Please model this.
Amino acid sequence: MFVTTRSDGLVRHRAQAPVTVQAISIAYLRWARHPDFDPFLPVLWDLRGHPLEIALDELVRIPRVTNQITGRLRGGLRTGILVDNAVAEFAADLLARNPAWAADIRVFRKEGDALTWLGAGTGR
Model:
């Protein structure tokens, strides 16, 4: 489960429970149906404090869901994944390197680094 907010020119999905493919898909689909949805906003997935319950072979399902909704609109736009442990960092890095993504994805351990790269609050 994720809580999704929009502020400072950024969409933030913050994990509230163990992170699963289903939870990520539901959060993304809910945001895509929201009246404020904007596929051009940078996105931060904050996974800190919650374990990943995703098998490595399941990682390929995530870009399929998001790309079906936004297509190539996200090309060149940014998505950050914020993690707090080596296992999550490894899995997120594998996810970010998947060539199926229509977005530029980076993995961060420090929130400030992620926000700077995403251009949050800069009018980017």
